[in-house]
Every structure is written in structure tokens, then in C-alpha cells.
Amino acid sequence: MSATLADLLDYTRNMTKFYLGHLQDIDMKRHYDANGIQLNAPLWICAHLAWAEQSMIAGALGNVPSPYEWLDTFSIESRGESTDAWPEFEDVKTAMDVIHRTSVDVLRGLPEEELMTVMPFPLFGRDVPKRTVVFHAIRHEGAHAGHLGWLCKLHGIHTI
């Protein structure tokens, strides 16, 4: 199961990369408003994905510390209003790639029985097995890939 989950995480990242490939010529810090609600900028989404994968997979399952000081700026509680302190997009892309490779390696190295052990901290207010955290990481990536797809549409970029 560990190898399959690693493959799914990697496969889902490919969808994120697909949409990012279409957004490369836009302002990655630009926010759109939809019905008066501010949408996250592409850079925020990517940095948030890096934060989430580091937190859920590399950090929580692999005990690998984050090498990026700016990562917590893009945690679940952050809103991403101030873009002045944001890293450059190339730095975020590099971090995404490094954290993703580390996370895939961590997953591939997990014994099957460890996926059934309970996480050392609650997720969504309850104790869950480690595999549930992996499931969430995969669906989290896919949800934000969809957000990038909407940003493509808002920029008039045809994808599929």
C-alpha cells in the first residue's frame, strides 16, 4: 500500500504541474476576487501545497525537518494578504519539488503495518491512522490543483 499511495501522491502532483505549466507567464502573486471574496494567488497555493506536504508527509511521517524558513507563512491559518514577504516563485517551485521528492521517498519507505498506526497528533479533532493523513494529503493536493485550474480560466487560459 505504501508504494501505491506514493504513486497516487506523485500522480496527483502531475495535475498541479499541468496547471502550473499554463500559468507560468502570469503574475503569480495576483489575487482575483470572485463575488467579493478574495481568491488565493497561484504562488500562495503552491507554497501552501509545499507547507502541507512537508507537514503531513515529510515532517509527520518521516520526521524530516523543513529547510525553508518561509514555509509556515503559508500554513492553513494564513490568508496570504501581504505578498511583500513572499519568496520568489522559483524558490517556491524548488521547495515544492524537494519536499515532494522527500515525501514520496518517505512514503515508499514506510512499512505497510506502520500506515495503520495512529498518528502522534489528532487530525480533524480525532485520532486517525497514518494512512488517513496520506489520504488527506492526496485529496488536498488535488483540491488545490483544481483551484489552479480555475485560475487558468480566470486568466483566459485554455487547458482542457
Properties at a glance:
DinB-like domain-containing protein, 2 strands, DinB-like, mainly alpha, 160 residues, Four Helix Bundle (Hemerythrin (Met), subunit A)
What's the gist of this structure?
A hairpin with a 2-residue loop joins β1 and β2. The protein contains 4 helices and 2 strands, in the order αββααα. The protein starts with a helix and ends in a 6-residue tail after the last helix.
Give a verbal description of the structure.
This protein has 160 residues and is an all-alpha fold. It has one domain (2-154): Up-down Bundle (Four Helix Bundle (Hemerythrin (Met), subunit A)). Helices cover 54% and strands 2% of the residues. The chain has 4 helices and 2 strands. The chain has helices at residues 2-23, 42-59, 89-109, 130-154; strands at residues 33-34, 37-38. Strands 1-2 form a two-stranded antiparallel sheet. The two termini are 31 Å apart. The mean pLDDT is 92. This is DinB-like domain-containing protein. Residues 9-147 form the DinB-like domain. It comes from Candidatus Kapaibacterium thiocyanatum.
